[in-house]
Amino acid sequence: MPRTHVWWNTKGPRSTPKSELTTGKVRIRQVRSGIGHSWRMRQTLEAMGLRHHQAEIVVQDSPSLRGQIKRVRHLIEVTQIEE
To answer: d(Cα 55, Cα 43) in Å, to the nearest integer?
Structure first.
């Protein structure tokens, strides 16, 4: 049976910064469109509240949000809000 899936190690970000944001609020800005990406990534963006390209949201940081951010980290930009 032929291999149908090949994992390309050159795709995606080479490394991800450590998630140091664990308290407070974060600003999430969508910098790339979900078009051309999997349905799961598009649904994750919509669940986060990002409905279109260049949308911005301010949300409370949590472990579940960290998981969503990790899934679509190449489509968004995350910054911590100083209070």
So the answer is: 15
